[in-house]
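User: Hi! I'm working on a homework problem where we have to compare a predicted structure to a textbook description. Could you give me the structure for the chain below?
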Amino acid sequence: MTDGDAPAPHTDAPAPRTDALAPRIAAVRERYVSTLGSVPSGVEERLRLAREFGRLPTEEALAALRDIVLTGNPLGARVQQLVHFGQLLSLGRHHPARLHARGALHAGATIADLIGVAETALITSGVPAYALGAEIVAELAPPAPGAGPTKS
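Assistant: Happy to help. Predicted structure tokens:
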């Protein structure tokens, strides 16, 4: 084996940034915007690392898989987001559950739909999942006009 055949040594140094990656990164972001209405901060961090360390193909592949599973699914975007919300409630995943609750609203779900998912989580996963769902729905539901705090 000659020096020309040796693999490049591993380095933790960031890959050089190029503007050539900007359209590819924008395309990944757009896939999240189309399903969730925004780009989650965790995705932005992954994209930053992918860009800096030359790993953008991983994020592109993940975005492509998400697109296949979400947009090519017979459940449709609204139901998909509601399913994600319920699964994440059951797993106790606070932040992703919030993202998918907002994603469900973005896809046409209603506050009543989110409440229904939270109530289903009560049966399948117990009070902690239901309480998390109710907390998230309360954050997203605008107060009724003239409604004040409840008296005990």
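For your comparison, note the following. The chain has seven helices and no strands. The two ends are 80 Å apart (CA to CA). Good luck with the assignment!
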